[in-house]
Amino acid sequence: MKIVLPGGSGQIGASLARAFQRDGHEVVVLSRGARPAPWHVVAWDAKNPGPWTKELEGADAVINLAGRSVNCRYNAANRREIIASRVDSVRAVGRAIAAAAKPPRVWLQAGTATIYAHRYDAPNDEATGIIDPAEPGAPSTWRFSIDVATAWERTLEEFAPPRTRCVMLRSAMVMSPDRGGVFDVMLGLVRRGLGGRMGDGRQFVSWIHGDDFHRAICWLITCDDLAGAVNLAAPQPLPNADFMRALRQAVGVRFGLPAAEWMLEIGAVFLRTETELILKSRRVISGRLMQSGFTFNHPAWPEAARDLYRRWREQRMADA
After folding, report:
1. Residue-number span of the structural domain to which 252 is assigned
2. For the segment 173-230, what is each residue's pLDDT rounded down to a tens digit?
3. Cα–Cα distance between 132 and 60 in angstroms, integer?
4. What element of type H or E holds 189?
5. d(Cα 128, Cα 117) in Å, to the nearest integer?
6. DSSP letter for each residue of 71-123
């Protein structure tokens, strides 16, 4: 297959590109910065038409991952850039596909499971999940994240081309052993003795192993019956306290210093990020994906954490 990855130069995009190329597929990454890579890289500005649009002609799948990182402080300038980078790229891809003489069969559009409400009582799937645009009582940063998620999805609905199947990926945190990923960051906390519960530890953590993420993407490319919003999350989300305990056990660290909410707020200022990324309860499962017949190789976090840590160590030894 020919796979086009707009915005595929980040950690998740590079991981997907490697996996697709390993499986013998033709990979084209659209990037703002055309850096050397093992696959074909084409320049684009994630906003305007240009020579990059020719790459979509006859492609089997387009997976748009473009969007400024949300790992930052939500000041006015960053908020504008976060939303614009997502909305503009969806418009650009949608218009290019609509204008193609031979459009791609499927467009997988990155989204986020943050669109679901903060809750402890039951998991959010696509059928029963609560999508709350206001999150009563939530900080403004939490409401902003929901604004981003809904604007992302609304733009896809507006620019969905008629001849291409469109899937909105409501993805949980993708855990991979790659340097700079979420797992790498959390592992660093654990190894420094800082891997205790965060806040009261009750908030649910939704996650997906990187291998299952890639397998789910391949499944969605070939499963012609699935369109619309699809959750990408392992079937066993768990509270933050249990999540961190399992990670410590996987690493062999007996103690992790807990961090109270006020400590996290101070730390977030210095790290130039937001506590919403770790304090919001994300209890999400992949209802439609599993109903279609997909099975997870890594459904439970303790086993997944052990596997990821083993791979992390192997990568570091190979780099040494």
Report:
1. 2-319
2. 999 999 888 999 899 989 989 899 999 999 999 999 999 999 999 999 999 999 999 9
3. 35
4. helix 182-191
5. 11
6. -S---HHHHHHHHHHHHHHHHHHHHHHHH-SS--SEEEEE--GGGS---SSS-
Residue 65 clears pLDDT 90, i.e. is over it: yes
pLDDT at 268 over 80: no
| 98 CB-contact burial (10 Å; exposed 0-12 / middle 13-18 / buried 19+) | middle
Domains held by the chain: number: 1
Query: Are residues 296 and 212 in contact, defined by beta-carbon separation less than 8 angstroms?
Result: yes
Residue 208 sits in a domain of what CATH number?
3.40.50.720
Where does residue 290 rank: exposed (0-12), middle (13-18), buried (19+ CB within 10 A)?
A: middle
pLDDT at residue 133 is higher than 70: no
Q: Give the closest residue to 301 by CA, choosing from 172, 180, 194, 178.
A: 172
pTM: 0.94
Tokens of 158: 């507006």
Find the mean pLDDT for residues 17-42. Answer: 92
**Spatial separation of the C-alpha atoms in residues 125 and 109, rounded to whole Å:** 18
